[in-house]
Model the fold of this input.
Amino acid sequence: MHEFTVPDISCGGCARTITRVLTELDAAAKVDVSVEAKQVKVDSQLPRAAIVARLTEAGFEPQA
Ligand SMILES: [Cu+2]
Done:
């Protein structure tokens, strides 16, 4: 399980975008986005760096 804090999450649309791009990257991924907490939980075998790169590319850079 990978957890990220993503300050740029502001609404359900952001959550849907994040869920979409990550499930495109790994169809088996389970993605849980909390808009209020600005947190993303990803249950996936992908390396953390690959998820960070994809989130950043989509405009949702995780906090270091
Ligand atoms: Cu949004």
Remarks:
- Residues 12-25 form the longest helix (14 residues).
- The CA atoms of residues 17 and 58 lie 8 Å apart.
- The pocket of copper (II) ion is lined by residues 10-11, 13-14 (CB under 6 Å).
